[in-house]
Amino acid sequence: MKYLRLPFQHDTRAPMLALMFATTASVVFVFTRIAWTRDFHYVFLVWNLFLAWLPLLFALLARETFRTEQQKTWRLLGLAGAWFLFFPNAPYILTDLIHLTARFPRFFWTDLTLILLCAFTGLMLGFVSLYFMQAIVARLFGRVAGWLFVALALGLGSLGIYLGRFLRFNSWDVLLRPGKIYHGLDTWMGGPMINTASAAFLVFFAAFLFITYVLLHALTRLPKTDFIRAAAKNG
Fold first, then answer.
1. How many alpha carbons lie under 13 Å from residue 100 in its C-beta half-sphere?
2. Which runs of consecutive H residues, i.e. helices, occur in 38-106?
């Protein structure tokens, strides 16, 4: 019961409820499309949303460990490692836009809206989890270290997304099939796939994630202006 209450603490309740609402709406949209078209192709988005929730759950556990436990080093490191492992699954859904190039041109705009909703939800899940992890690092090592952690996490996240989309690795392959990952990386780094296109993907996707995160981070710190307070009083 303690862990079930973690998302609903006073300082996390609003974003958690918003993320749950967006996730529920995304799932409803997926199954509405299935019922409408009689095609189950986009059911994979539900699984991808489930995977996008995992880094947030690990971040919440890491946050609670940091706040409440005295001897927290190994447990915190373990949760941080699990977070790093699954973090790329959250923004990964953005790459599902590739499915629009091959299937169902008749429903292009419907499918675009569906994938963007799921992708944006996944991106927000990842960013909220990153915010929690950044706060832990900043408390331990300072604000600059917190932002360096953000840059590192998004850079590695971009690499994880590339490996998942183009080399077809999963997060759990690190534990279940490490040899496959080693062989795949060795082949990729020594072959023609590591070229300007793959380098451009890594750089541009990491930059996109970092800029988007910085913008959202800044927007959440906008104060209520005096005219809004005045309007609220007059209203």
1. 15
2. 44-68, 73-86, 89-92
Query: Distance between CA 109 and CA 113 in Å, rounded?
Result: 6
Q: How many CB atoms lie within 10 A of CB 60?
A: 21
Q: How far apart are alpha carbons 54 and 27 in whole angstroms?
A: 17
Distance CA 9, CA 201 (A): 38
Q: Which two tokens stand for residue 34?
A: 């299935």
Q: Report DSSP state, residue 69.
A: -
pTM recorded for the entire structure: 0.85
Question: Residue 213 has which token pair?
Answer: 């995160």
Q: What percent of the chain has pLDDT over 90?
A: 51
Count the neighbouring beta carbons within 10 Å of the beta carbon of residue 90: 30
Q: Where are the domains of the chain?
A: 6-225
CB 125 within 8 A of CB 52: yes
Alpha-carbon distance values, 203 to 48, 109, 224 (Å): 23, 29, 36
Residues 6+ apart with CB under 8 A from 3: 61
pLDDT at 226 over 80: no
